[in-house]
UniProtKB/TrEMBL annotation, chain A:
Main location: membrane
Domain NADH:quinone oxidoreductase/Mrp antiporter transmembrane: 127-422
Function: NDH-1 shuttles electrons from NADH, via FMN and iron-sulfur (Fe-S) centers, to quinones in the respiratory chain. The immediate electron acceptor for the enzyme in this species is believed to be ubiquinone. Couples the redox reaction to proton translocation (for every two electrons transferred, four hydrogen ions are translocated across the cytoplasmic membrane), and thus conserves the redox energy in a proton gradient.
Designated name of the protein: Monovalent cation/H+ antiporter subunit D
One MF term in the entry's GO annotations: NADH dehydrogenase (ubiquinone) activity
Keyword terms: Cell membrane, Membrane, Transmembrane, Transmembrane helix
Pfam families: Proton_antipo_M
Transmembrane residue ranges: 32-50, 81-102, 109-126, 132-150, 162-182, 205-231, 238-258, 278-297, 304-324, 330-348, 369-388, 408-428
Organism encoding this protein: Sulfitobacter aestuariivivens
Biological process according to GO: ATP synthesis coupled electron transport
Localization per Swiss-Prot or TrEMBL: Cell membrane; Membrane
Membrane topology: Multi-pass membrane protein
Automatic annotation (TrEMBL), chain B:
Protein name: Monovalent cation/H+ antiporter subunit A
Domain NADH-Ubiquinone oxidoreductase (complex I) chain 5 N-terminal stretches: 62-110
Listed GO CC annotations: plasma membrane
Native source species: Sulfitobacter aestuariivivens
Domain MrpA C-terminal/MbhE: 683-764
Ranges annotated as spanning the membrane: 77-97, 109-125, 131-150, 162-185, 205-230, 242-264, 270-291, 298-320, 326-346, 367-385, 405-429, 450-473, 498-523, 564-585, 597-618, 625-645, 651-669, 689-707, 750-772, 793-814, 820-840, 852-875, 895-919
Principal location: membrane
Feature: compositional bias, Basic and acidic residues: 928-952
Any one GO molecular function term: antiporter activity
Keyword Cell membrane attached: yes
Pfam families, sorted: MbhD (PF13244), MbhE (PF20501), MnhB (PF04039), Proton_antipo_M (PF00361), Proton_antipo_N (PF00662)
GO biological process: monoatomic ion transport
Positions of the Na+/H+ antiporter MnhB subunit-related protein domain: 794-916
């Protein structure tokens, strides 16, 4: 029996309480454990991803109970890729947090960081909807803790809105789970996929409402307009490394939509047909537009980046909403890109903040080291705006290509291309004010007292950009992989069979009654 | 050399200038020159194959599924452009070495320049149109950096943004066009696309594709109505203007039209759009150029005009037109780059480019004068210079072109354009170099060193050589034309020569030159007319548009995201309700499968109380204490509801949770005002009430619907009921579900609880270190305080009760597996026992008697739960697998031991730690540092010897 598939959840779940118990006053020890833990996670998740790359499905029955009675953790191509992406992102974010000293500006950063990872990784790995709810709770409460790390009025205010809106989401999640359980009597995803088939056409409202409520829960997480209001100020106010880590959080929503609406409620399912055809794609396009308009409208750099996250989620959801293998493959490629690009931009905005007191888009005298930051910003902006040579451009091509010939093709192409232009405009304006116009402002002679980012901070940002470059260079391989992944998602038989047919404790009548 | 190297060299080489920056300017320029030279020589090694008519290919797969591959192709057309790019690039680098001032960062400049060069070579060598798009956008980006190179100049920043916006827009349009084209053909490889003329032109998507691609070409090559960005790009250093904005980048659009010529041209759409855009651009550019006083602006508009000329030639769709276009591209590149570099020299030496402040430089700068004169005369179309030849061909072509059915329209406009063109050439020479020598140049002019005049001089030599001996260029131009035509048309037989006889083109040419001279004669009055004529100023309009768009975006976004949470929640809720309703209304409703249960009087009474309490809460929620009490009632009724529905575990949990939360909330209330103020208008409250009622009704309807219907298949709870004793060793199914069947959920939930406590702690910590601390300390209690904070009765009572409560907790914990109870409830009960001590004797007294910090208790609890789970790994079972056995320790009866109990212990500890840490954190807010901490359990203790602090100590000596 191998336990590796559960390790990405258990390892941070043990590390975090250990840090609280034994090392809560020693930042040095916390850093060592945190970094080593994340390094181990990267190694584990990489080996898991390579293990399932042949299309096999790893199943882990918690408590030895077979699905659907117990909880299962399932690793397939999609979930392991998301896990790997999370761990790699976490490594660079953690290095940045340590390099910039953010982790020492409040209490319990590393414990919360590990708990946060546990929540995210658990959400990607679990094969049970209620367990997904639990992990949503873990990642929500941990993210709230991380968000208000280091305090401050604006941050606390944004934090309250963040947690309140997400509590609406949690409540809705419970409604949806109750509805689904009432309709099907199960919460295991694979089992659901089978039971939903049993529902006849004479009685569909129950499952339809349940399915749409669940979709809305995930849409809140994925910041789909008009359920995105929690995002702009909370991401903008969160400490930069935390915001960077949050780049993966919206993807949890996207992941869940992909998982649930290809496996449980696939597009060809009769009883839930026409459920979201009407509104999901338009809403995604509106998200894309609002996100990029927000980039143009933002008065502060961190808010600009936050809106670009909404925009890129709009792009992801546009591609998902096609619900074709090509669309999902493109979305998965874009998810990796958007996570890395969003995180990079948040970290870069913190590099900018290090040299000046705020992130207002006003010219302020340049400080030492601006040239490197400017270069990094240029690269990050190119990535996010979807310009060549970075992967955003390729992702955009994939999405456009996937939508060719669909009903809303003209709309998709129009919004995608025009919003690109708007974001180019927004980024160009912001960059030229911060990095160029700064040279026309008289600054104080003495800039020695201003701190400059540490080498470690630059390395973390550079590392993320290098990953983006690799995502571009190996785009063929990555996209090839996401294509097979999409294929697996639209033919979930192996997944379902593995989960529902593997026996567990008491599955076979062996034990005698006492 | 492999094509890959030719493209890659400038990109890889772009790293070098930045690196060599520290080694001095010569080294920096030297490596840049070497890199370009290597690429140029690499290109030349392919010359024999190109001359032989072969197409050199190189291919590496990139994204085969999408059809985007790294496929390069070198044919005559590509070679021609690559040669221009790399050849002129070499001259520019040599020139820039001397042009840039000491203060300029040369490494940065050459890095951008090489990036641009690589991207440009990439465009002309791409065989894959998606790859071409990649390079296309890269030229926009590097041009953005180069135009904004002088960061402190506002013109540079604005020009850079304008160029990026306009060319970026075109690039995006082209993405659409190229994708459509690829979808029509089924391949993105040019070599395939170029074979499919009929297929493409017959497709209904041909026109959209054409328009989108032409948008890209027109924006890049500054064709009307997108011509306005180019003059503003002249804020860049002059080498950039000469290189990007006259010789190469702006030719990218032309290149693409030439590339796509075999498949896109020849249709009426192509002809009308391209020819008319070119014609308008040609005339308009030339007209504006005449009246520009800035040397570079004049040249910029003349470039616009000449690009229009070439576009117009490509638009005609004839082979002769294409050949003329190719020839003019070559000629224009030579004379215009030379002119730009010369303008740079004038600027460099006199410190002005304003023609009105110049004049008479003829004698002061003879070399520059010579260069400019030859190049400008070539541009004007004077015989024995190369410009004349291609202009003749152009005029010849126009005589065969009929636009909109008017035969004279194109020739007349072309002649008029040529006339204007001649005029600004004469003005350029006359007003800058001729005339009297002035005594008020901003700087004393003289000819520069060879480094600056050498490169333009070299180009001027070419101008003369081609002009005098056109037959030298003829085979090459025809080779390029052949590859442009791509077999769709025959290469024209016409020879290149100066004298064609008395053809119409000659008369038009003569008319243009003479007219140009005459126009210069009346320049002064014309200028007055021009300056008094109101004209749209492109930059103002553009900036205005962008600013308006940004302002609109700001208004829209900031109105939408105004920070009011109630509105966000309202929008979200409405969306959720609406979409739920949509899902409901599109489905089918079947008959109920269950009968409603009858409700007893007691149940109805309980329900009525619940409703009454909730309703009261809505009415009285502004009084915070009252609403807390009402919430308590709601909680209690829910607990009783659980009992009614046969869920004693849930009832107990709910009950204890109620107690603890009410205590916590009371503590929190301590720091808050008594009443919640009214903050929103009546209208808004009515709106919110409406949404709330709608949400409530929807929830009710949904719950009612599900309650009356069975699940489609046996619920999994049946399995839990059947197996809780057999597999989990407990008869209390709820507890077995919590710690065994779904122990992993519980594991997650205790972590949530633990995090919540850590969070409350971290929050108070940050609060206490901030300004809030002072506010808290200076706060005056708004209600009278009890004189005796820690009354004796309470202290005694809590001490007595404590062991009892602990025992109850222990009991509840142990019996949990079989009867209602368990770690969670036990944890809450034990917490209550400790909370009572805090309440009785105060924060300081209690916490000083605390052995185990609550952080540690939480950590230990989660760790114990985790390690219990891991324990099963040692027997080869999955995480959290439980086992149980029966043991007998005398004198006790035989009892059951389950590993789940250990897990439950973890739950217990986590709950205790979490509750206590939250409580302690709240209490810390109230704790005042200046208060003397009492070491006594109660303030007034008759048995104690020492009196209270503020009273003088009684004298006890002398006994």
């Amino acid at each position: 029996m191998t336990h590796w598939i559960i390790a990405p959840i258990i390892l941070p779940a043990l590390l975090a309480p250990f840090i609280v118990l034994a090392a809560r006053y020693h930042i040095g020890i916390q850093r060592v454990f945190s970094v080593v833990g994340v390094l181990a996670l990267v190694a584990i998740s990489a080996s898991l991803a390579s293990q399932v790359s042949d299309g096999s499905v790893l199943l882990y029955q918690l408590g030895d109970w077979a699905a659907p009675f117990g909880i299962v953790v399932v690793g397939d191509r999609l979930s392991t890729m998301m896990v790997l992406l999370t761990c790699v992102l976490a490594l660079f974010v953690l290095l940045y947090a340590i390099g910039s000293g953010w982790d020492n500006r409040g209490r319990h950063f590393h414990a919360l960081f590990q708990f946060q990872l546990m929540g995210i990784l658990g959400a990607f790995l679990t094969g049970d909807l209620f367990n997904l709810f639990v992990f949503f709770e873990v990642l929500l409460i941990a993210s709230y803790g991380l968000m208000i790390h280091a305090g401050g009025n604006a941050r606390l205010k944004a934090g309250v809105q963040y947690v309140l809106f997400n509590l609406i989401g949690s409540t809705l999640f419970l409604f949806a789970l109750g509805s689904i359980y009432a309709e099907t009597g199960t919460l295991n995803m694979a089992d659901l996929a089978e039971r939903v088939q049993l529902i006849g056409p004479e009685e569909t409202v129950g499952i339809r409402v349940a399915a749409v409520l669940l979709l809305l829960v995930f849409a809140i997480k994925a910041a789909l307009v008009p359920l995105h209001f929690w995002l702009p100020s909370s991401y903008a106010e969160a400490p930069a490394p935390v915001a960077a880590l949050f780049a993966i959080m919206t993807k949890v929503g996207a992941y869940s939509i992909i998982r649930v609406y290809t496996m449980i409620f696939p597009p060809d399912l009769e009883v839930t047909s026409g459920l979201h055809d009407l509104w999901l794609l338009p809403a995604a396009l509106v998200s894309l537009a609002i996100g990029m308009i927000g980039v143009l409208a933002a008065k502060k750099l961190d808010r600009l980046v936050a809106f670009s996250i909404i925009g890129s989620m709009g792009m992801v959801l546009t591609s998902i909403a096609l619900f074709t293998p090509e669309g999902i493959a493109a979305a998965l490629y874009y998810i990796v890109h958007s996570t890395l690009a969003g995180a990079t931009l948040f970290l870069i905005s913190d590099l900018v903040r290090t040299g000046r007191d705020n992130l207002d888009l006003t010219p302020q005298p340049p400080v030492k080291g601006t040239a490197i930051t400017a270069g990094l910003f240029f690269a990050g902006a190119i990535a996010m705006a979807g310009l060549p040579p970075l992967s955003g451009f390729l992702g955009k091509l994939l999405v456009l290509d996937a939508s060719y010939g669909t009903d809303l093709m003209v709309w998709i192409w129009f919004v995608v291309l025009v919003s690109s232009l708007i974001s180019i405009l927004g980024f160009a304006r912001a960059g030229s004010v911060i990095f160029w116009k700064a040279h026309s402002v008289e600054g104080p002679e003495d800039t020695e007292h201003l701190t400059t980012p540490t080498t470690m901070s630059y390395c973390a940002v550079g590392g993320l950009l290098a990953l983006l470059a690799a995502h571009t260079v190996f785009a063929g391989q990555v996209h090839g992989y996401t294509t097979t992944m999409a294929g697996q998602l639209f033919a979930p038989d192996t997944y379902v069979a593995t989960v529902t047919q593997t026996p567990g404790k008491l599955s076979k009548p062996t034990k005698e009654d006492h | 050399m492999s094509l890959f190297f030719i493209v890659a060299l400038p990109f890889l080489g772009a790293l070098l200038p930045g690196l060599m920056n520290g080694a001095g300017r010569a080294a920096c320029a030297g490596v840049t020159f070497t890199v370009s030279l290597a690429a140029f020589l690499g290109l030349m090694t392919n010359l024999p194959s190109v001359l032989a008519g072969e197409v050199v290919m190189a291919r590496v797969d990139w994204m085969p599924v999408l059809g985007l591959n790294f496929t390069l192709m070198l044919d005559g057309l590509g070679f021609f452009f690559a040669m221009l790019i790399l050849g002129i690039g070499l001259l520019i680098i040599a020139y820039a070495r001397h042009y840039l001032a000491r203060g300029d960062n040369m490494g940065e400049f050459f890095t951008y320049l090489l990036l641009f060069q690589g991207a440009m070579v990439g465009i002309v060598l791409s065989d894959n149109i998606l790859l071409l798009l990649v390079f296309w956008e890269l030229t926009s980006l590097s041009s953005f950096l180069l135009i904004g190179y002088w960061k402190h100049l506002p013109e540079g920043r604005q020009g850079a943004r304008m160029a990026l916006t306009v060319t970026g827009m075109g690039g995006l349009a082209m993405i659409g066009g190229m994708l459509i084209l690829g979808q029509i053909v089924g391949s993105y490889d040019l070599s395939v696309i170029l074979q499919n003329r009929e297929l493409i032109q017959a497709d209904p998507m041909y026109v959209p594709a054409l328009i989108l691609i032409l948008l890209g070409c027109f924006t890049k090559s500054a064709q009307f109505p997108f011509h306005f960005w180019l003059p503003h790009a002249m804020a860049a250093p002059t080498p950039v203007s000469a290189y990007l904005h006259s010789a190469t980048m702006v030719k990218a659009g032309i290149f693409l039209m030439a590339r796509m010529w075999p498949v896109l041209s020849g249709t009426p759409e192509w002809f009308v759009i391209v020819t008319s855009a070119g014609l308008i651009t040609m005339v308009l550019g030339a007209l504006i150029a005449i009246f520009k006083h800035d040397l570079k602006a004049l040249l910029a508009f003349s470039t616009v005009s000449h690009l229009g000329l070439i576009t117009m030639l490509l638009g005609t769709g004839t082979a002769f037109g294409a050949m003329a276009a190719v020839f003019h591209i070559l000629n224009h590149a030579t004379f215009k780059a030379a002119l730009f570099m010369s303008a740079g020299i004038v600027d460099h030496e006199t410190h002005t480019r304003d023609i009105r402040r110049l004049g008479g430089l003829r004698t002061l700068m003879p070399i520059t004068f010579g260069i400019v004169t030859i190049a400008a005369l070539s541009m004007a179309g004077i015989p024995f210079l190369n410009g004349f030849l291609s202009k003749e061909m152009m005029l010849e072509e126009t005589t065969h072109t009929t636009l909109f059915g008017i035969w004279w329209l194109v020739p007349a406009l072309a002649t008029f354009g040529s006339l204007l063109s001649a005029a600004y050439c004469f003005r350029l020479i006359g007003h800058t170099f001729l005339g009297p020598v002035r005594d008020n140049y901003p700087s004393k002019p003289h000819d520069p060193g060879f480094g600056l005049w050498g490169p333009p001089a070299f180009l001027v030599v070419l101008v003369v050589v081609i002009g005098v001996a056109p037959f030298l260029a003829e085979p090459f131009v025809k080779l390029v034309t052949a590859s442009l035509l791509g077999g769709e048309a025959e290469v024209p037989k016409a020879y290149f020569k100066i004298w064609h006889g008395l053809v119409p083109a000659l008369f038009m040419s003569v008319a243009a030159v003479v007219g140009g001279l005459l126009l210069m004669g009346v320049f002064k009055p014309l200028l007055r007319v021009w300056e008094s004529t109101p004209r749209p100023e492109a930059k103002v309009i553009f900036e205005g548009l962008i600013e308006a768009a940004a302002a609109l975006a700001r208004r829209f976004i900031h109105t939408l995201h105004n920070g009011a949470f109630t509105r966000y929640a309202m929008i979200g809720s409405v969306a959720i309700i609406a979409l739920g309703l949509h899902a409901w209304s599109t489905g089918t409703v079947g008959a109920p499968t269950r009968d409603p249960q009858s409700a007893s009087v007691v149940a109805i009474a309980g329900w009525a109380m619940l409703v009454a309490a909730t309703g009261g809460l809505v009415v009285m929620h502004r009084n915070r204490l009252l609403s807390l009490i009402l919430i308590g009632i709601v909680g209690l009724m829910v607990s009783i509801g659980f009992v009614f529905l046969s869920a004693p575990d849930l009832a107990m949990t709910q009950f204890t949770v109620e107690v603890v939360t009410i205590i916590l909330l009371l503590l929190a209330l301590n720091f808050l005002p008594n009443r919640t103020p009214i903050e929103s208008t009546v209208l808004r409250r009515v709106r919110d009430a409406g949404v709330a009622v709608a949400g409530g009704l929807a929830t009710f309807a949904l719950a009612y619907h599900y309650l009356l219907r069975d699940a489609v298949s046996t619920p999994i709870s049946e399995f839990h009921l059947a197996n809780s004793y057999k597999g989990g060793g407990g008869t209390n199914v709820v507890n077995v579900i919590l710690v065994d069947f779904r122990g992993f959920d519980t594991y997650g939930e205790i972590i949530v609880l633990g995090i919540a406590a850590l969070l409350i702690y971290a929050l108070t910590e940050t609060l206490l270190s901030g300004p809030v601390r002072a506010r808290l300390l200076n706060r005056l209690p708004d209600q009278p305080r009890a004189g005796d904070m820690h009354p004796m009765m309470m202290v005694v009572l809590t001490r007595v009760i404590m062991p009892v409560v602990l025992m109850v907790g222990f009991y509840i914990f142990l019996r949990g597996h079989n009867e209602p109870g368990g770690g969670f409830i036990a944890g809450l009960i034990v917490s209550i026992a400790v909370v009572m001590q805090y309440m009785a004797s105060g924060f300081a007294w209690t916490s000083s008697r605390l052995r185990y910090p609550y952080h540690g208790v939480i950590g230990a609890g989660v760790l114990i739960a985790g390690f219990t789970g891991i324990g099963s790994w040692f027997v080869g079972k999955p995480f959290l697998t439980s086992d149980f056995t029966y043991v007998r320790i005398p004198p006790f009866e035989k009892f059951e031991l389950a590993t789940a109990a250990l897990f439950d212990l973890g739950v217990f500890l986590a709950v205790v730690g979490a509750v206590m840490l939250s409580l302690e954190s709240f209490s810390r807010l109230a704790h005042r540092a200046q208060d003397k901490d009492s070491e006594h359990p109660m303030d007034i203790d008759p048995s104690r010897d020492d009196p209270p602090e503020d009273q003088p100590k009684p004298v006890t000596e002398g006994v």
